[in-house]
Amino acid sequence: MDFKGRRVLITGSTSGIGRAAAELFHAAGATVAINGRSVQGVAKAIREIGFERLVAAPGDVGSVSGCEAMVGAALTALGGLDCLVNNVGISSSAGTLDVTEAQWDELMGINLRSAMFCTRAALPALRISRGNIVMVSSAAALMAGPSECMLYAISKAGLIGLARTLALEVAPDHVRVNCVCPGYTDTPLARRRFERIGDVVAKVTPLARLGSAREIASAIVYLASEDAGYCTGTNMVNDGGCYAGASWGTRG
Predict the structure, then answer these.
(1) Residue 22's pLDDT is what?
(2) Domain boundaries in the chain?
């Protein structure tokens, strides 16, 4: 796929799925804005990917003002925008009776609110370019369990609703909006919890392994490409077969 001359902004792109997507877009010729909370982390990712056609867009997207400032800086540096990838995300373990207001606010702010307000800030530029948006949701949004990941699942389900609703709103402007729903993926976040989820992955994933960040990123790049020009308001499930087998978390 050819992304020469295309401008891409990926939230949370210093590691994991976002970093893999940045590498694939960059390899395909795009100019990519790299986002992360720290200036140092963004600079390190740019050095490792290669300086050419890479733009630093550091900033915390946990607040509306942070989203607006980061996207504004990226748009200025890129000179416009052709694709926004709302990828940034965190996880927090809590059941219904244990969840705190602070946990709820932090997780929903980063996983869901950031997508809404980064999108709002980027939409005028995407209307001009007839660009597209890819939301990185999760197979957890489609199936129940494990219960301690309730907050994560709720936030990721919200991304699917946002993508579908927004897709209809902006279709007359020739802007496409889609979701990728990864299953268990080998990322720094997953590795921090791998000892706890390793047995679950082997039990409930038909392919019996974690997916790679590159395998998920390839779906993001496809949905952003002209080859997917007739796709909007849809979910691409990339989960090793969990959804097909209705298996997630504690259900095998």
Answers:
(1) 98
(2) 7-238
First to last CA, the chain: 37
> Is residue 152 annotated as part of the catalytic site, yes or no?
yes
Phi, psi of 35 (to 5 degrees): -115, 140
The predicted-structure confidence for 138-154, as pLDDT tens digits, reads as follows 998 998 766 677 899 99
Angle between helices 39-49 and 16-27 (to 10 degrees): 40
* C-alpha–C-alpha distance, residues 51 and 150, integer Å: 39
67 and 60 Cβ atoms separated by less than 8 Å: no
Coil, helix or strand for 136?
strand
Can you read off the two tokens belonging to residue 166?
């927004």
Q: Which residues are paired to 235 by β-bridges?
A: 179
Tell which CATH classification among 3.40.50.300, 3.40.50.970, 3.40.50.11750, 3.40.50.720 matches the domain 7-238: 3.40.50.720
Q: What is the pLDDT of residues 39-67, one digit of tens each?
A: 999 999 999 999 899 999 999 999 999 99
60: left (phi over 0), alpha (psi -120 to 50) or beta: beta
130 C-beta neighbours (distance < 10 Å), count? 12
Q: Pairing mode, if any, of strands 54-56 and 83-86? A: unpaired
Contact 137, 180 (CB under 8 A): yes
pLDDT digit string, tens, across residues 80-118: 999 999 999 988 877 888 889 999 999 999 999 999 999
- Are 5 and 32 in contact by the 8 Å Cβ rule? The answer is no
